[in-house]
Amino acid sequence: QVQLVESGGGLVQAGGSLRLSCAASGLTFSSFAMGWFRQAPGKEREFVASITRIGRNTYYADSVKGRFTISRDNAKNTVYLQMNSLKPEDTAVYYCAADLYGVGYSPSSEYDHWGQGTQVTVSS
């Protein structure tokens, strides 16, 4: 059974940092491109960042480029999202997702497995 478990969310002041982690099990991690998505209250789920299977390429939404960094450790079956210079508009539930043989820039509909999400709240 595939499981993706996010952690690291919480409450932080604007300008602060958080590091999200997503631990994967029940799958061959290196076969999956990994992505982070987020959904704010009353809004559609949106793409945040993604990384290819061995981490060669990364992709970011314009809204987080230069502030967020996605990385992965295939030995630990874990993907990370380092979030710096956080803004109140980054407040959302953050989800990690796995895309089998993905190329890294797939739409959310292409992702095969999703975590339950972790709440990130940025106060002004």
Provide the helix percentage: under 10%
List segments where confidence is low: pLDDT < 50 over at least 5 consecutive residues: none
Order of SSEs: EEEEEEEEEEE
Determine the mean pLDDT.
Answer: 96
Q: Report the principal-axis shape.
A: globular
The strand count comes to 11
- Radius of gyration, taken over Cα atoms and rounded to an integer in Å: 13 Å
Number of helices: 0
End-to-end C-alpha gap: 40 Å
Class from secondary-structure proportions: mainly beta
What percentage of amino acids are in beta strands? over 45%
Largest sheet: 7 strands, mixed
Outline:
By secondary structure, the chain is mainly beta. It has strands spanning about 5, 10-15, 20-25, 30-40, 45-50, 60, 70-75, 80-85, 90-100, 115, 120-124. The mean pLDDT is about 95.
Question: Could you please describe the fold and organization of this structure?
Answer:
The protein is an all-beta fold. Helix content is 0%, strand content 51%. The protein contains no helices and 11 strands. The strands form 2 sheets. Strands 2, 4, 5, 6, 9, 10 and 11 form a 7-stranded mixed sheet that branches. A hairpin with a 6-residue loop joins strand 4 and strand 5 (46-51). The chain is globular, with a radius of gyration of 13 Å. The relative contact order is 0.32.
